[in-house]
Design brief:
Largest sheet: none
Low-confidence stretches: 95-118
Distance between the termini: 12 Å
Helix content: 40-55%
Structural class: mainly alpha
Order of helices and strands: HHHH
Radius of gyration: 16 Å
Strand content: under 5%
Shape: globular
Number of strands: 0
Number of helices: 4
């Protein structure tokens, strides 16, 4: 997850730039520490269930138990679903780019956010 230090998130309807930055930081901490339950924060749980279309599984502990407690087919499904969400976001961004005015070069611009899972 290489994010340039000067990268600027933008506010969206349901998630501010500040919230995106905090969510990315929470993801980095969770992954860096081996996906341990103490690093699966309420912020990550909320992001996955509210912004990435994952089922809540009753609460944060239930969600963690299904996808991360013991790596299994559910874990692989989770990762596959994240890829699906990312493809959807890239397609949505491509639509935005095509609908924007073009540069003299004939190419649209793509926001760096395209590559992010948030």
């Amino acid at each position: 997850m290489n994010i340039e230090p000067d990268f600027q998130f933008s506010d969206e309807r349901f998630m501010t730039a500040a919230e995106k930055k905090l969510t990315l930081s929470a993801w980095k901490t969770f992954l860096k520490n081996g996906c341990k339950p103490e690093h699966f924060t309420e912020r990550l749980y909320h992001h996955l269930t509210q912004h990435c279309s994952f089922i809540a599984h009753y609460d944060r502990r239930g969600f963690y138990g299904v996808y991360f407690e013991t790596p299994n087919t559910q874990t692989l499904r989770f990762l596959g679903d994240l890829r699906r969400v990312r493809r959807h976001l890239v397609a949505k961004q491509s639509y935005r780019v095509r609908s924007q005015p073009r540069h003299a070069s004939g190419r649209g611009t793509i926001s760096p956010e395209v590559a992010l899972p948030i």
